[in-house]
Amino acid sequence: MQNGNILPGLDSGPHRQGRVRGRWLIFYVTIAAAVAGGDVEPTAADEGRAAARRLNRLEYQNTICDLLGVKIDFQEMLPPDSSADGFDNVGEALHTSSFLMERYLEAARIALDRAIANLPQPPTIQKRYSLKETHQVKSTTENVFRKSDDDARVVMFSSSPWQSASLSPFYPPDPGNYRFRISAAGIQSQGQPVTYRVDAGLMLMTGKQHLVSYFDAPPDESVVVEFVDYMDARNTIRILPYGLASAQEVDKIGAEQFDGPGLAIDWIEVEGPLNEGWPPASHRLIFGDLAQESAPLENQAARVEVVSSDPLVDAERLLRQFCRRAFRRTVAHNDVAPFIQLVKAKLDEGRSFEEAMRVGLTAVMVSPEFLFLLEKPGTLDDFALASRLSYFLWRTMPDDELLTLAEQTELHRPETLHDQVERMLNDPRSQAFVRDFVGQWLNLRDLDFTMPSHLLYPEFDDMLKESMLRETELFFAEILTHDLSLTNFVASDFSMLNGRLARHYGIPGVAGWEFRRTPLPPDSHRGGVLTMASVLKITANGTYTSPVIRGVWVLERILGTPPAPPPENVASLVPDIRGATTIRELLGKHREDEACAGCHDEIDPPGFALENFDVIGGWRDRYRLSGWTRDAEEVTLNGRKMPYYNGAKVDPSDVLPDGRAFRNVDELKLLYLADKDQLARTLTEKLVTYSTGAAPRPEDQLRIEAIVARVREQNYGFRALIHAVVQDELFQTK
Questions:
Q1: Residue 9: what pLDDT?
Q2: Distance CA 709, CA 730 (A)
Q3: How far apart are CA 244 and CA 326, in angstroms?
Q4: At 440, is the secondary structure helix, strand, or coil?
Q5: Which of 413, 435, 627, 702 is the most exposed place for a label (fewest CB within 10 A)?
Q6: pLDDT at 631
Q7: Bridge-partner residues for 147, per DSSP?
Q8: Residues with Cβ < 8 Å from 496, sequence gap 6 or more?
Q9: Full-model pTM
C-alpha cells in the first residue's frame, strides 16, 4: 500500500494506467480501515427504518464546495441518481459502482486543484469597459446600435440573439470570482422598464454558458446593477435585451432614427479575481497558517510550496481538523491514522508536503464516512441528527454551530432543535431546500424536458420559462417564511409574479423582471400550484395536454392517492390536435372499458378541470389546432395572423368518485379544501421521505397522524409542519 499510488489523477508516471485495477482494490481496503468501528455496510437485521445512504449528486457537490470553500459544478461529471418514492435522496435507490467511485476520485482531485493555491497571487483586474469596444458592436453590418462620439454609451434596439453583446475585451486569464457592475437605462420605452438578461461562460458555439439573471433598466434613468459570478479562464459575459424589435426591423430604419424602445448601456465595470487575502480562504481551510515559499521550476511558472518543519505532526493536526468537518463528527487519532499513513508513504517517496497531503485529503473525500450518512439504528446521536437536519434544510454538511451543539450533546433537546430550525430556515442556504424539494415534489426538474411547438405556441420564450420556475419557488418560499397555511398550495389569493408572467396570466399592473407578491383577481382562475404555468407545462408535452397525465400528477403529488398501474396492453390516448376527435370523447370510450373505468374515475376529473390551461399554462376557452378544419377559426393578434386555429370548446366539468360535481378548476379546488387533513398528510409524507431518506411504512402511520394533528392546531402552517417533522421520532430515529 505504501509503494503504490492508490488514487487516480495523483500519479503522472508511465505506470499510471496499469495501476487502475490494483488501485481500486487497495482503495476499498484503505477506506474501510478509515471507518470507526469497521463495519461499512450494516446487515438488514440492524438496518433500521432508513437504509444507509450515500450523498446524492447534489449533496456531494454542495458538501465538497463547503468543505473546501470552492465553487464547482459536478452535475455533468457525476452520473444522475436514481429516484424512489419521488426523491433522489432515498437510500434504497442510491447505488454505488466502481465507475461512480472513479468519478468521485477524479472529482476530489479537481476540487483540491481549485482549493489549493500553489501559484503566486494573480493580478487583480479593475477596469471599466464600453460596449463600443466589443466585437459585435464593432463588426456588425446591421444598423442596430446607436452610439455617439462623445461618450461611452451604446443603445441596443434589437433582441435578436445574434445581436447580443459579449464583453469581448474581457477574457480573464485567471479563474475566480469577479464582480460586475452594469450601468443601464431604458430609453424611448414609454415609461416602462426595459429588461435584459446576462449570460456568463465561454462565448463560442460549443461553449458552456449559464444565465446569471434578468435585470430591469428603468426608463430614462441609469441604474447600476451589481453581481458576483465565478468565471473560468477566458470566460466573459453577454448582454441581450428582452422584448425589443428584431434586427431586421431596426436595420430597415436605422438605429439613429428608430423610435422604438431600447436598452442604453453606459458602461460595464469588472473587478477580480476577488480574494480577501493570499493564499485564499480555500487554501487556509486545508493548510491553516502554514507558510509558503517560492519553488521555481525549470521552464515552468514559479510555484509556491507549503512549508512544514514537522510534516507528520502537521499532517495529523490538519487531517484531524479536516476530518471533523468531512466526517461531520468529532474524530480521534484512530480515525485519521489510515490517512496519516498515506501521507507518510508519499513523504517517504520524496514527495512534497503538499503532494503527500493531497493523497490523504483525497482518501478522506472518498471514504465511506464522507460519502455516506452512516447512522446507527435507533435514536440518532447528536452528530447524526446534525447531519440529517443540515442535509434536510441546507442540502449540505453541518456548519460549526451545529457540530459544536452536537459535541456538547445539546442538539437533541426540543428547544435547541426548534431554535436551530428557525436559524437554518432564516439562512440564505435554505434556498437549496426550496429549489430541490420543489423541483422534486412538483417534478419541476422536467421543465426543460419538452419544447412547446413554435407554431402552436409562438409566445413561449426563455424569459417566460425562467419566470415559471421562479414563481413556484418564490411562492413556496413565501409560504414557508411567513408560516402560511399549506392549503395555499391548492388555493391561494396571491402569487409571486413579474411582468412577463403577469402578462401571460392576463393580470394587469405588473411590469419588469422583478417578482413581487401580487393579489390575484377573483376571475383569474389562478392561485396555488395546480394552476401555475410551471406545473401545467411539465404535465403536458409540446403540442397537446392530457387529462390523464395531469390527473395522475394531482393524485400523486397533491392528494397522496396514486392510482394503480394501468393494465397491460392498454394503449395510451393521444389527442387529435387537428380537432377531429376531442380528448373527452376519447376518454369517454376508454372509461367504458371495465378494466379502465375504476382508475379513470379518479384520474380524469382533476385532469379535465385543468383542461382550461394549455401546454404552457395559458388560459384557453377553446383548443388550439395545428391545421384548419370545418369548425376551426382563424386567430389574429395585433393585426397578425397566427399560425394556429381555434377549435372545439373546452369542457372542464366532471364528477369526483364520491359523487361531488364541479364545473371548473375553481370549484374543484374548493372540494379539495374540504379535506385539509389529507393535504397535510400528503405533504407530511413527502417531507418525511425527503428528510430521512426513506418513505413512511404502514406502521409509521400513527406518527404521521400525530404530526398532522399538531399542524392542524396551528392552522396548517407550513413552517409549523417543518418543525413538527423535525421534532418527531420519525425524523430523530433511523
A1: 37
A2: 15
A3: 50
A4: helix
A5: 702
A6: 78
A7: 154
A8: 470, 471, 474, 475, 478, 515, 516, 517, 518
A9: 0.91
